[in-house]
Amino acid sequence: MTKSTSNSEDRVEVLVVGAGPAGLTLAIDLARRGVRCHVVEETEERGVNPRCNTTSARSMEIFRRLGLADDIRRAGLPEDHPPSIQYRTTLSGEEIYRIDLPSSRDVLQGVGKETWPTPEPQHRISQLYLEPILEEHARRLPEVTLERGTRLVEFEQYDDHVAAVVESAGERRTLHCAYVVGCDGAHSTVRRGLGIRYEGVDAIQKFVSTFFRSPEFGRLAAQDRAWTYWTYGRQIASLIAIDGDSLWLNHVAFPPDHDTESEDPEELLRDAVGKPVEHEVLGVVRWTGRRLVAHRYRAGRVFLAGDAAHIWIPVGGFGMNAGIQDAATLGWMLAAVHHGWASPDVLDAYELERKPVGEQFAGAVGSAANRAFAQFSPDIHAPGPKGEQARAEFADRLAVSEPHRYSPDGFSFGYHYAGSPLVVGGEDQAAITMGEFMERAQPGFRLPHVWLDDDQSVLDVLGPGFTLLRTNPSVSVTSWNSAAEDLGIPLAVVDLPGRWPDRYPTELLLVRPDQHVAWMGGLDARPDELLQTVTGRVAAHQR
User: Structure pTM?
Assistant: First the structure.
C-alpha cells in the first residue's frame, strides 16, 4: 500500500464513499442511531443530469422515519402538478392511454388516505432536487462530516480496521475506519478495489437523454399536464417534467447495438413533440441501460450499496430506490454492532438479505423494460378508423403492462428477507413482482401499515431498536423485557389490542429497526433465544 504523503491520521467509525441518495441516506440513518460517519464525495458540486425522477413509497417511508418526508414531498413538481403518465403518438398528436395519479397536495392533505397501503405514497421528484435536501439534513447532524472534492485513492483491510487513503486538493491523508461503505456508483472505486465484478446483462437498451429548458414546450404541455409523456415516433421516447414548468428531460431508447453517437438530440426532440419547439439544451447524455448485480456485497469490513452493488435499466427509478433500501438495512446493522448489542456476525446478513432482492429486482426491471420498449404498430399514426383501432389495441396492451410499473407496490412492500438468518419462521416465497404484495404480516417482510386512532401510522410508533407489537394484552411481556435488558438490546413494547387480526394474525410480532418483521408468535416464545438470533448472536433454531 502506498504511504500517505500527509502525517495526519484520522479515526472514523464508518467511511461512506459517495454522497448520492444511498450514501446520504446511510449517513443520516447512522447519525440518528448515534454513529459518527465521514462522507467523501469526489465531485465538488452535484451534477446537472436529472437522473432518477421517482422516489418510491418505501423510500418515502424510510425518509418519514428519518424526518425528511415532508420536505421531500414539498420539493420537485409543484404541489398541484398531476404526476400522471400519458401515452401519445407525439406530444402534439393523439392520446392513446393515460394513468392518473394523485398530486403532492392531495397526499399532503390526506385525500383518500384510508385506502393507502402506506403512510407515504410515492413522490415524483428529480434527483436534482432530492439530493440537496438529503445533503442539507446530513450537514446539520453533528455525527456527520461531509467532504466534497475528496476522492478515495486506495484502502487496505486489517483485522480491526480499514486504512483508507483519501485525497483532497492534491494532499493525501489516511483515515482509519471501523467500516467502509462504497456508495460510489457504477464505476465504484470501492468495488474495483475489492476485485468484485458485476454479473448479468451488460446492455439491454441504449439511450440518448436530453435535458432542456423550453417555456414554449411547457406551455404546450400545460394544455393537459402530466409528469411523463410517452411518445411513439421514429423511436419510443419519454418526456419527463422536472420542475413542472420549463425544465424537461427527453429519454429516447434504441436497440443495444445501435450507434447513438449518430443521433441528433434536436431531431429526437422534434420527433417526440411532433413539431419544432424553441428550447435550450442543458445537457446530453448517451448511455446504456444494463442489468447487473455485484457478485458480492461485502468483503471483510467493506460493503457495497446502491449502484456500486447493482445497476439496471431505469424503468421506474428502481435503482436509486433499491440503494435507499440497502442503506436502511445496513444502517441498523452497523449501528447495532457499534453499540455492542449485536454480534459482528449480524453483518453477514446484509448480503444474504439484499443481494437476492437486487437479483430479483434486476430480473423484473429487465422484463418491464422489454415490455416498455416493445414494438408498436405504425398504424397508431394513421388517420380515421384504422388509426383509432390501432390506438385502441395498443391501449389494451398498455393497460396490462403499465399500471404496476408506475405504482410498483410489490417492489415497495413485497420485497422481503424471509430467508435471512436474522428472521425466525420465514417461509419460501414466490419471486418478487412489481404489483403483488400481502397486507398481512409475515416474517421477513416490512410490517404492514395501518392508521392508528391518533392519525399516526403503526410505522410511526415503532422504536428505534426492536419493537414488540402485542395484539393480546393478556400476554405477558415481562420475559421479553428481562431478556432484552440482560442482553442490552433496545426493545420497545407497543400494544395494538384486539385490532386488525387479519393484518397482524399473532399475539406478538417482533419488528426490527428497519421495520421488517423478525418473528411472529405467542406464549410459546423463547425471548432470550429469539433476541440472540435476530441480532446475529446465535444461529436460528426455530426456522
Answer: 0.94
